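FORM 7B: Structural annotation worksheet

SECTION A. Query
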Amino acid sequence: MLFLYMPIVVLVIFSFNVSKSHSVFSGFTLDWYIKLFHNEIIMKSLLHTIIVAAAASIAATVLGTAAAIGINKMKKLPKMIIMQGTNIPIINPEIVTGVSLMLLFVFFAARMNFEFGFITLIIAHITFNVPYVILNIMPKFRQMNPNIYEAAQDLGCNPVSAFFKVILPEIMPGVVSGFLMSFTFSLDDFVISYFTSGATSQTLPITIYSMTRRKVSPEINALSTIIFIVVLIVLIVKNIIERRSAVKRGVK
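SECTION B. Predicted structure
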């Protein structure tokens, strides 16, 4: 725990340091946070990051939910094969995914006359987020009574209303968890974004990287602290949702 969190604690402490020193704490100040929000480059990159993360997370959640429903209806062998294929993007090194997506976009860019930018970024983020949504939803199908869908139809629901009134509420904790995980991963992704972004669509991690190559400003400490807090809040919300779902099922 010390090795994991000591660097973050140091970063948070020195984000409030009066001086630019990273080794001597001279006094408490909020100036670096104020300067951070007046930094146009960082604010523009933050906006790009939020747009990409929100769009990719919503799209990945819809696609992942539809995929999970289809996979759940498969027989044992096809389901096992598809699930193993779904796991490959998760265990695949990010640099391999980033380079392969970049080459794919270059191939289509030469033929369809489009440039790297928001579209390529969002597609790339959807690609690596969908498997996480599927993995969050599939356990909810295993916990659900498989007969309730047919029971809803026997009681007068058509297939569409049976899905929205019976199936979706049962798997909703997994859907929300998948969305939050997708948003978190999109928010702090660097490697894949680095290979698939354009000059006018750089995300926050790429901007931070370009700034730290010259000089590490205390503004970076302040920004990293804010990102850490946001991600921590998302994880807490995710755990609360999962805990309430477990309590609802009677699991302690």
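SECTION C. Observations
DSSP finds eleven helices and no strands in the chain. The radius of gyration is 22 Å.

SECTION D. Sign-off
Analyst initials: ____
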